[in-house]
Amino acid sequence: MGMTQSKNGTTSEEPKEEGQLIKSREGIYRLMRRLQVKHTPLKLRFDSVADHYTSMVLAVNFKEGYILLDEVTPKWGDELMAKAIPFHFDSYHDGCKISAEKLQAVGRAIKEDSPVYKVLFPTELHFLQRRQFFRASVRLSLNIQVRLGVKKPEIKRDEYDNIIPQSPTWEHDGLLRDLSAQGCQIEAKGDLRETLPKNTEYTSCYIIFPNGHLLDIGIAIRHVGYDEKRDVSSLGCQLINMDPKLDRKISFIVNELQRDNARSSSGNSSAPISELFLDASGKEPSKNTQPETEEETKELEKLTTEEVHHKAVRCVQKLVNSLRDKTALPIDEAWEVTDLLLEKLQKDRQELLLISRVRSSANYLYEHSVSVAVLLADQTMFNQDNPRSGDPSYLRDIIFAGLCHDLGKGLIPDRIVNKSGELNETEAKVMHKHSLLTREVLSRQQGMPAIALTLATQNCERLDGSGHPEHLKGISISPVGKLAAVIDVFDAMTNGRSYRAGLPYALAYKRLLAMRDKLDLASIQQLIKRQGLYPIGSLVAFENGDLAFVKRHDQNNHPSVVRLVFNKNTNQPLKHQDLKLAVLPDSKKKLLPEDPAKYQLLNDLLLNEL
Questions:
Q1: Which of 98, 133, 168 marks a domain boundary?
Q2: What pairing do the DSSP bridges indicate for beta strands 572-580 and 232-240?
Q3: Cβ-contact 90, 43 below 8 angstroms
Q4: Is residue 360 domain-shared with residue 486, that is, in the same domain?
Q5: Residues 576-596: tens digit of each pLDDT
Q6: Distance of alpha carbon 347 from alpha carbon 343, whole angstroms
Q7: Where is the composition biased (Polar residues) (predicted)?
Q8: Are 576 and 439 part of one and the same domain?
Q9: Range of the domain at 544
Q10: Among 159, 403, 496, 587, which residue's CB has the most CB atoms within a 10 Å radius?
Q11: Domain CATH for 36
Q12: Nearby residues of 346 by Cβ (< 8 Å), 6 or more positions away
């Protein structure tokens, strides 16, 4: 803890910032990759040098444990780095401070006429949530336009000295993706890396909300990234020329975005929406997602949710087969499927959940991967404590990670993967290799999101250290790793294999709660709350013996529409009928959980047209 000296010469302890020390290689890799992907600047300070310098992360190598740093600015910092003078860095990302000490360059090279430096992973990273840097994400379906570099026209008058109306002009159009008290992220069409170099400043930019409200701010562009697949540039901007009045406006808008994300994530469409996000007529504008190519738009429109799910299952199968055949993995196709799943999840999550719960034992591995991906994103959107719950890029990475989380099982012999009984010690050791194999395969793929490497292994870890492959305990497992472990076990429990039927959901919940020494209790409770006591696709019984599969939920995640299929008292099938529970008298609404295996009922009956 540092010491400060008062005027009278006495010393006192400085309050030390609280936070978390990240010591695992996975955790360090994850945070450094986050800084790389978001083009977040690092503030460097060298030992015995008063000045500070700036650099950025160009690459992160998990396997060998090093990062590549871009050239140091100002340029005379290059001499310090080349001499391997020890340094530390601070960086701010999504409301978090990330810092490390005792680093030094172990190599220098020239890339595209500029120096780059190889630096070994720090032994630990300090991670601290800083509210003043909190970034509120803009949900994918909310269109907030940004006009960069607005030029206000000179006043022109006619021959009678009347002012002639003039429209302002601007240099670039974009969409707001997040906002904080300090800065924002903007997406704009095309490659703007040359057009808008780092540190470009605009004294006037318009943020235009759906209701027509306009905010005029100044920004400095601190980094420019480019997504070649989407042909979209991501601009990381710092707000400049701020005054107290503008500060208050920004703070209000950040709060409104937070409320909007909570409303969207909870699925509570009855919650009031901010006036900022309504159009001039007081209605919510029609959905307008991220910029897409014409071909992508057509594909989204023509594919049904069932077709998207089928495409996703086939994609996972292709990934596994490519791994077995030692051919290039179809990563581009996996990202394409990821985008389709995210679009369907945001459009009608209940329909996608229903389809992902209709399973066949022959496709267990592939369908399980898709289901885990969908549930991970669905639970994340619901989690109001997660500041990135409404961040489309984060949700996209989570779905991709879920699709890939079990790829390594494709390299494990089928006799072990599909064994009906308990694995012996030798077989268990072989099976436990699948998570490391998955991480190794994914780490070799270009542009792999850090969360995919995390979930590859952490979905198999347990709080008490009994998991694998690294026997991590409690705090060493990331929050998303804890959630993935719960979802992975839940999905495996509730879906049948060739040698056994899946558990009823009510029993699966009880078993999850009984595993609280191994699985995160908060994640279990979150899962139960979001999926409901009677999840979509589960079987329920009425008091008269009628059995029905749950087809849809109301806003409180209670069954609202069920499909009648069987009567257990007469042991006879019923004519299939979709029943809205709202029209029933209260005396007939009481439901109890049932086991479909007991009556040899399959929930694929939900997909049949009436």
A1: 133
A2: unpaired
A3: yes
A4: yes
A5: 999 999 888 887 889 999 999
A6: 6
A7: 1-12
A8: no
A9: 539-607
A10: 403
A11: 2.30.110.10
A12: 140, 141
Q: Are 135 and 181 in contact (CB under 8 A)?
A: no
* Residue 285 located in a structural domain: no
Clarify whether residues 273 and 387 are in a common domain: no
Higher pLDDT, 140 or 145: 145
pLDDT at 523 over 90: yes
| 398, containing H or E segment | helix 392-404
Same domain for 91 and 52: yes
pTM of the model: 0.56
Tell me if residue 418 falls in helix, strand or coil: coil
Instruction: Return the pLDDT at 150.
Output: 83
CA–CA gap between residue 183 and residue 146 (Å, rounded): 13
Cis check for the bond before 15: say yes or no (omega within 30 of 0): no
Percentage of residues of the chain with pLDDT beyond 90: 40
DSSP string, 428-450: HHHHTHHHHHHHHHHHTSTT--H
CA distances to 111, 179, 190, 230 from 226, rounded to whole Å, are 19, 19, 8, 9
- For residues 5 and 11, is the Cβ–Cβ distance under 8 A? yes
- Tokens 């694998």 locate to 468
Give the pair of three-digit tokens for residue 554: 């109301």
Residue with tokens 């029209």: 583
Is residue 286 one of the residues assigned to a domain? no
Residue 497 pLDDT level (bands cut at 50, 70, 90): confident
